[in-house]
């Protein structure tokens, strides 16, 4: 079974090319994820439970939430990429952890409520999905702002086959992303679907060969991180807010955010650089 680091992508058949991302792995306090900085302004978080195909357990989610909070508050970071192994982004929630829980257990302790902390990150989050992204894995991917998929990625919400339903946003986000009829069919049958279908349905924005996926996600994250941080965060806020309200409210909120950016140094720098035909040097101020 593949260990979910970047090495399998680039050392297969003793290839001399080693990803720039692999060089940046550092010792972290996390037991279930690997954290690295593969490019300036980018944090890469790799789910790391290879024996369980990165099944989402409470300890893993706590590690992921802590790492994302750390990246979100780090002024040197402009974007975050979440990935898994080539075999599995995350094959689902940890069934062994859930099997013996009762209604009282899950209700009293708001089981899996903390999974949605990923959606409260202000900085853009990209999901690079190789292999299985099922159940909670699919839900985690959908919490990202941008999803890239490997050609062999497999998505789905098969919870119905376990006698439950998606509980971390699957019934809500999948419906909003691909439409009611198709989402209803997938959720009620537990049918999985491939990367190309996910692309055609608008769930993912691009599909790449598995060995190129993480590099492509990091490349896009790096491009995002190179833009003005305040404008990037405002754009993310505007898009997400607009999905929750009517068009008129969304337009008003967008305009207020647009107006507010005229109080920033980055706006002055960006427009001055454009006029002077040079690259802007944003400071996040």
Automatic annotation (TrEMBL):
PROSITE patterns: ENOYL_COA_HYDRATASE. InterPro entries: ClpP/crotonase-like_dom_sf (IPR029045), Enoyl-CoA_hyd/isom_CS (IPR018376), Enoyl-CoA_hydra/iso (IPR001753), Enoyl-CoA_hydra_C (IPR014748). SUPFAM superfamilies: ClpP/crotonase. GO terms for molecular function: enoyl-CoA hydratase activity. Its EC number is 4.2.1.17. The keyword GTP-binding does not apply. GO terms for cellular component: mitochondrion. It comes from Lipomyces tetrasporus. Pfam families: ECH_1. The keyword Lipid metabolism applies. Belongs to the enoyl-CoA hydratase/isomerase family. One of its GO terms (biological process) is fatty acid beta-oxidation. This is Probable enoyl-CoA hydratase, mitochondrial.
